[in-house]
């Protein structure tokens, strides 16, 4: 039973070969979801099919699963990898070769932080992909500009907070100096009055 699931992909490949799919230059969308395969395998038979959309919702977990996508680097523009098992940024490095990718979906992969409060994990993951894929327009359903702004929210808040703290410290120091000057003024006046009385 275990070996039957990966064979679904092999069945697709056989179908593609038997029907000469590799010569279909208008095979623009391919969905290979729900196959529960840990490794994708060779996709060279799709190289000349002008595939622009690819969805792979399976049990993919390491970079070997994505290295096969290099065969689609010239045409692939939208890639959906939601609900897989990619756990770190190293596993995603093969995606860096997909320079034409405009839309990328990696929702519900450990690499992006499963919990909402994994802010540092999410920020590192987003920053890495945005730098590696300059043509990326949307990541995980969010526009690039929104993702970029959200990738470093705490730094801006900390910087703003630091500036406010500095201003508050300066204001406190100025108030203390003014209070000291006010306290010293009566003493100086009293000393001057006492000196005049002594001269008399």
Helix and strand run: HEEHEEHEEHH
- Briefly note the structural class of the backbone: alpha/beta
Biggest sheet character: 6 strands, mixed
How many individual helices? 5
Shape: elongated
The CATH topology name of the domain at 34-143 reads Leucine-rich repeat, LRR (right-handed beta-alpha superhelix)
Please tell me the overall pLDDT: 73
Jot down its keywords.
Leu-rich_rpt, 200 residues, LRR_dom_sf, Leucine-rich repeat, LRR (right-handed beta-alpha superhelix), 6 strands, 6-stranded mixed β-sheet, 8% strand, alpha/beta, leucine-rich repeat, elongated
What does this structure look like?
One of its GO terms (molecular function) is histone binding. This is Acidic leucine-rich nuclear phosphoprotein 32 member. InterPro entries: AN32, Leu-rich_rpt, LRR_dom_sf. Residues 149-185 have a biased composition (Acidic residues). Strand 4, helix 3 and strand 5 form a beta-alpha-beta unit. This protein is α/β, with parallel strands linked by helices. The chain starts with 5 loop residues before the first helix and ends with a helix. It is built from 5 helices and 6 strands, in the order αββαββαββαα. It has a domain at 34-143: Leucine-rich repeat, LRR (right-handed beta-alpha superhelix), CATH 3.80.10.10.
């Amino acid at each position: 039973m275990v070996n039957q699931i990966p064979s679904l992909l092999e069945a697709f490949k056989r179908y593609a070969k038997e029907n000469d799919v590799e010569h279909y230059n208008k095979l623009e969308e391919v969905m290979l979801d729900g196959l529960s395969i840990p490794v994708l395998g060779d996709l060279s038979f799709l190289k000349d099919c002008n595939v622009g959309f690819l969805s792979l919702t399976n049990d993919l977990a390491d970079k070997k699963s994505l290295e096969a996508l290099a065969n689609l680097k010239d045409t692939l523009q939208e890639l959906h990898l939601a609900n897989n098992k990619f756990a770190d940024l190293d596993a995603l490095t093969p995606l860096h070769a997909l320079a034409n990718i405009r839309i990328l979906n990696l929702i519900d992969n450990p690499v992006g932080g499963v919990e909402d409060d994994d802010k540092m994990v999410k920020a590192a993951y987003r920053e890495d992909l945005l730098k590696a894929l300059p043509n990326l327009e949307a990541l995980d359903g969010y526009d690039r500009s929104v993702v970029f702004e959200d990738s470093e929210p705490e730094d801006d808040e900390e910087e703003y907070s630091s500036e406010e703290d500095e201003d508050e410290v300066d204001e406190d120091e100025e108030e203390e100096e003014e209070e000291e000057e006010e306290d010293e003024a009566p003493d100086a006046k009293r000393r001057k009055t006492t000196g005049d009385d002594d001269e008399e």
